[in-house]
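Reopening this ticket.

The earlier resolution said the output was attached, but the attachment link was broken on my side. Pasting everything inline this time so it's all in one place.
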Amino acid sequence: MTAPIRIAVLGASGYTGADLVRLALGHPGIEIVALSANAKAGQTMAEVWPHMAMYPQLPRLVRAEDIDWSGIDAVFGCLPHAASAALLSTLDGPRIIDLSADFRLRDAGTYAEWYGGEHPAPALLGEAVYGLSEFARGRLPEARLVACPGCYPTAVLLALLPLVEAGLIDAGRVSVNALSGVSGSGRGLKEANLFAEVAEAVHPYALGAHRHMPEIEQELGARAGHDLRISFTPHLVPINRGELVTCAVEMSGGATVADLHAALQLRYADEPFVHLLPKGVAPSTRMVRGSNHAVVNVFPDRITGRALVIGAIDNLVKGSSGQAIQNFNLMFGLAETAGLGQAPLFP
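Inline output:
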C-alpha cells in the first residue's frame, strides 16, 4: 500500500481552508498533519467549525511559524494575499498549492497595481504554474508551485478559453455579468455581509475595478496572442455557495452559435468535471453546489453576431479548494478525481 501524502493547510479557519479540510478528509491518499490559523491557535477544528466535531483525529490549530515542515510533502496556502507569498516563499521542501492571489499574475507590476503593494516574492512568479486544471494538466506533474485561479476567473475561463483558442470569438469584446454567493467575501466580520444586509437583495460591487479582471485578461490574452481588456461586473447574491457568469461575446469569422457549442463539446468531451449541457438548458448553481463540477452552455443573443456563454461552479469547490485538490492529484500522479467524487447537493 502506497504511503499517504502528508499535507499542511494554512488558514484552516477560513471558508476556503475549511472546505479544503473537508475534501481532504475524504481523500484516500492524503494525511492531514498540520493545520494553521494564527488567530485561533490552540483550538481544535471542532471548536472553530462545529461540523468537524466528528473528526477528532484532526491536528490542533497552530501558528504557521510553529509547524514542523520536516516530512510534509505538500502545503495548501489558504491565506490572504501578501501574507501567503511572504510565508510560502520561505519554505524549502514541500510542494506548494497556493489558493491566494499572490502567484496568479505573472507581472509583479500588475500585482502591485491591483493589490496595493509590492509583491512579497517576485522571484517566484516565473516559476508558478497557473493551475486552471483542465488547461494546465501537462505542466502540473513537474510543478513545485501552483497558483490556483480565482473563483470568477475559473468560471469565466472555463466558459471562454476553448472559444478563444478556436478563434471563434473576439477575446477583446467580452462583457461578463457575474454572480457570487456571500462565502466568496470570506469569513471575516464585515457589515456589508451581515444577514440583514445581504438577504433579499442583490448588489453589484467593485464596479470596473475587481481584482480578478487582470487575471482573466492575462489568460484570455495569452490565448488570443495580444493584450486585451474585458468588461466585468460582479454581483453579490443572497446564497452561501455558488457562482454563475453570463459572458456576452462577439463571434468571429462568420462563426455561429452551433460552432461555439461544437467547440465546447469537443474540448470538454473527456473532462471529468466540466460538462456542456444539452442545447437549450441553462446552467444553474443548483446543478453544482458542493461539488467540483462545472456546467457550461451557449445561447444565441438577439443581437446578430453575438452569443451568450454561461457557466456555473461552486465558488468554494471548483472555484477554490476542489480545484486545489484536483491540481494536487495531478502534481502527485494520483487519479485526477481522487477525493472529489461528491455529487452536487440538491436542494
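Reporter confirms the inline version is readable. The domain at 5-127 is CATH 3.40.50.720 (Rossmann fold). The chain has a mean pLDDT of 95.
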